[in-house]
Amino acid sequence: MNENQSSTNVTTTGASTTPDRFVDPGIPAHQERMADKDPAASARAERQVVILFVLSIIGTIATIVVYFAIRPEGTTASVRNANLALGLGMFLSLMGIGLAAVHWAKTIMSDHERVEERHEQRSTDEVRAAAVAVLKDGADDSGIARRGVLKGAVVTAVGLFPLTIAVPLISSVGNDWDVSKFRHTIWTKGTRLATDPAGRPIKATDMTIGSVVHVIPDVPEEERQTHHWITEKAKAIVLLIRLDPADLKEAEDRKDWSHEGIVAYSKICTHVGCPVALYEQQTHHLLCPCHQSTFDVADGAKVVFGPANRPLPQLPIAIDDEGYLVAQDDFNEPVGPSYWERLK
């Protein structure tokens, strides 16, 4: 091989050439940053990092103040405003730490390239000692030991940030231990069934065979604007279906839970709580779109397919003096996929 020939071995296959090995190009020449060459630029970068950490500290303090100062008043707007203020405070707190860390790494910390050969197992003591020395050199090069303000800012910012999560959690402990409320929904005796989301009460004559209506409790308009209503509505949502009475297979103790073929079942799947809402009129099957659990509405909403292992809870219904559909009581059991007093 003469001086003008490349040192790379080349294998020719047909019309293409494939190199067997490439020459290691090595590490490119190190390019110094402005902060490496100019002490004033280095000091300016340090101040910028400190300012970002201080912003994080301010964000943490603001989050804690907002948590105690802006309390939800039960309305949707107040909950939204409180969550927005908390989110902004936490965003500022975490963003300050993130931007400071990135800016510090780019402008202050050592950016000299290091090469370390791979070893399949534990390195020798000499190699380990060399690695520790490299880390110490990097710490010395970053100047963290002599940058007291920067060190204080990073410790304070990182130390305070967990308070944005810990304070709300700790302060909420012990506020409400009434677990019995999870057993029941807001359906009560005499509550009219209303369309969702319009809230229009439903008469039995509005339903024809094959009709399917998404139903919520009939409550005053002002109550539907509260946070409490939104929370409770998620548990109380119902699917109202009218079948031919001849197709219904009702247990003896449930024959008065329907009205002329109209039945009402919880929309919350007993598998993992997805909304069950896909109804097949010919088979009377109700399908959960998440995991294909299938319930037979004509036979007590029993499971006929899929991972759910319990029927959908039924809401007993009747009609009032004006012909409107009303609840006789709450669901026959807690809604949803699980409950601690339930065997399955």
UniProtKB/TrEMBL annotation:
Residues 1-18 have a biased composition (Low complexity). GO terms for cellular component: plasma membrane. Residues 235-326 form the Rieske domain. Keywords: 2Fe-2S, Cell membrane, Disulfide bond, Electron transport, Iron, Iron-sulfur, Membrane, Metal-binding, Oxidoreductase, Respiratory chain, Transmembrane, Transmembrane helix, Transport. CDD domains: Rieske. InterPro entries: QcrA_N, Rieske_2Fe-2S, Rieske_2Fe-2S_sf, Rieske_Fe-S_prot. It holds the Pfam family Rieske. It is a multi-pass membrane protein. The keyword Glycoprotein does not apply. Its main location: membrane. The chain crosses the membrane at residues 49-70, 82-105. It is found in: Cell membrane. The keyword Membrane applies. Residues 1-27 are annotated as: Disordered. GO terms for molecular function: 2 iron, 2 sulfur cluster binding; metal ion binding; monooxygenase activity; oxidoreductase activity, acting on paired donors, with incorporation or reduction of molecular oxygen. Iron-sulfur subunit of the cytochrome bc1 complex, an essential component of the respiratory electron transport chain required for ATP synthesis. The bc1 complex catalyzes the oxidation of menaquinol and the reduction of cytochrome c in the respiratory chain. The bc1 complex operates through a Q-cycle mechanism that couples electron transfer to generation of the proton gradient that drives ATP synthesis. Belongs to the Rieske iron-sulfur protein family. This is Cytochrome bc1 complex Rieske iron-sulfur subunit. It comes from Sanguibacter antarcticus.
